[in-house]
Amino acid sequence: YLEFSLAHAGLAGAYASAGALTLLAPVEAYPRAERAVRRALELDPDLEDAWATLGAIEGDYNWNWDAADDQ
């Protein structure tokens, strides 16, 4: 299932970007991004793309700067 972790990470990145650019309402896009990125990390906890996206979500949407730095 590791190959699907990249798909989930890519989906998370797309939703996060759509929220950041307001192509989708951030309140709609970021929770979807977070669900997808957490699924990617369940499948592959070492996936760097997913950790980077999670850091962006934590900083940009959740305003959790400490968690963003940890990612």
Word description of this protein:
By secondary structure, the chain is an all-alpha fold. The protein has 4 helices and no strands. The chain has helices at 2-20, 26-43, 48-60, 65-70. Helix 1 (2-20) runs antiparallel to helix 2 (26-43) and helix 2 runs antiparallel to helix 3 (48-60). The radius of gyration is 11 Å and the shape is globular. The model has no long low-confidence stretch (mean pLDDT 91).
> In angstroms, what is the radius of gyration?
11 Å
Main pleated sheet: none
- How would you state the average pLDDT, rounded? 91
Strand content: under 5%
Our count of helices gives: 4
Question: TL;DR of this structure?
Answer:
The protein has 71 residues and is mostly helical. 79% of the residues lie in helices and 0% in strands.
Write the layout of secondary structure elements.
Elements lengths: L1 H19 L5 H18 L4 H13 L4 H6 L1
Notable characteristics:
71 residues, mainly alpha, 4 helices, 79% helix
